[in-house]
Amino acid sequence: MALPEWDGELTSVRHDPETGAWFVIGVHSTRLGPASGGTRAMVYPSVDDAVADARRLAGAMTLKMAAAGLPMGGGKSVIALPAPRAELDDATWRRILGLHAANLNLLGGNYTTGPDVGTCSADMDVLRTLTPHVFGRSAAAGGPGSSGPMTALGVFAAVEAGVAEAGFDGVDGLRVLVQGLGAVGADVARLAAAAGAKLIVTDVDPARCAALAEELGAEVIDTGAVLTRECDVLVPCATGGLVTAEVAGTLPCAVLAGAANNLLADPYAAEVLRRRGVVHAPDFVANSGGAIHLVGREVLGWDADAVADRTRAIRDTLAGIFDDARTHGITTVAAAERRAAATLEGAL
């Protein structure tokens, strides 16, 4: 394995011959405090891909924490599974969680993890019996519960901010396309429907689409049509890398705001969106409600109302970012990164 240069602080890689799993922890920055970021468990094409993903996600977490004004650094765990989790038996998964806990302990508190794609609060409950370096336990186990609802609330606040920036008078009557109907995407869809949106949904799981169609009267489209279906607001809530510069040049929406991390596949895509007048809410701001929930409840001692208020304030944060981008003729990503950089520099 050849590790390319990276501006982060630490990359830990471990292989377990018994299960075939690879464990990667990327600590990008501890400037604002101990690094924090979820554990992603999925099948990767190669261990190099897993390392690259952990590093990208860790860097995004640094920006997320700084932009949200939270006293934590950025990190991420990736467990490259030997097979889809649904195919792993309980003993194998328990061993994987045990090794992950051991890796967390080796870092001595410099990195704390929580749920992400492929893991959940129940997994955090198990990890917490093996290591103290865990956020996001279930309420039954003494934790604050899933971060999904607050992530969704923050994404919808980003949608509202983007809609206002685009000149619309609220979400009512707009065509809102939600891609990915997991815990976050489904809740975003419900919030959009409650606000009067004409809801369009898509997911790789037809059952999820059918359930939302029945519950909310949503229109269901094929996953392959997500980048070509005309809509007012596109809300990607699956995995990242969806929007290349080429895709940005033809994306048929006025607002792009979603939960997916690292949504843009290359930096130039943000400039293409800017030139076309597509309002883009940077993902590390739009999806920061989950971090606000976990850090607010477990580190800062906020109650549920305080967390919700801080999460809704993502709308105000983005309004400032949009204004900065307009004033200086830069992308919203550049404006958001400037805000995060100022916070990080202030910690020196």
From TrEMBL:
InterPro entries: Aminoacid_DH-like_N_sf, Glu/Leu/Phe/Val/Trp_DH, Glu/Leu/Phe/Val/Trp_DH_C, Glu/Leu/Phe/Val/Trp_DH_dimer, Glu/Phe/Leu/Val/Trp_DH_bac/arc, NAD(P)-bd_dom_sf
Gene3D superfamilies attached to this UniProt entry: Leucine Dehydrogenase, chain A, domain 1, NAD(P)-binding Rossmann-like Domain
SMART domains, per the entry: ELFV_dehydrog
Signal peptide positions on this chain: none
Highest taxon listed in the record's lineage: Bacteria
Pfam families documented for this protein: ELFV_dehydrog, ELFV_dehydrog_N
Record key words, sorted: NAD, Oxidoreductase
Glutamate/phenylalanine/leucine/valine/L-tryptophan dehydrogenase C-terminal domain residues: 146-348
Family under the similarity heading: Belongs to the Glu/Leu/Phe/Val dehydrogenases family.
UniProt protein name: Glu/Leu/Phe/Val dehydrogenase dimerization domain-containing protein
Natural source organism: Pseudonocardia spirodelae
